[in-house]
Amino acid sequence: MKYEPSDILEAAVRLINREGVGVSMAKVADEAGVSNGTLFHYFGTKQDLLDQLYAWLKSDLITAIGDVPDDLTATEQLRTLWMRWIAWVRRYPARQRASQLLRGAEIVSPAVVERSEAMFARFLVILTDAQATGGLSAAADVTGQIIVLTPADLRLTVLLTTANALRTSAI
To answer: What pLDDT digit, counting tens, does each position of 139-157 carry?
Structure first.
C-alpha cells in the first residue's frame, strides 16, 4: 500500500493530542501503520516532521478560510474570517490543539513559524481595519488558551481549553 505524507501527519496529530509533542518517530510510524523506513523517507528527522506538520496545519486552516471578499465592509470581512476559522476549529479540534501545542512548545523552526505566520498577513489587515472602523469593540487577547473577539454587531466569546473543548456563546 502506498502511503501519503498526509496519512503520517494525521497520525502525528492524533499522537500529539494524546501524548504531547515529545512523541517518538517510532510511535508516529506505528500510529500511521507505516514502517520506520517509510516515515523517514517522507520526514528525514523528527524536526522535519514537526516543521512540516506545523506548516501543513497552518496551510490547511488558510485553505479552509479561503478568500475573504474585498467588497465587504471591514466588519463583514471580520465576521467571514471569524466564522470560517471557528468552523475549521469545530471540524478539526485535534488539528487546532496540535497546532497550539507545537507553537507553545517552541519546537517548530523559526523560519517555518515565520513562513506560516506570513500566510495570515491578510487577516491582520482585516482585524486592524475592523478595529479602526469600530467593527471590533474590544481588542483580541490571544494567549494560546483563550481567544476573545467581540465584533460590535456579532459578539462571540470563544474558549479553547486544553481539554480540546470549544465553547461559543453570545454575550
So the answer is: 444 444 344 444 443 333 3
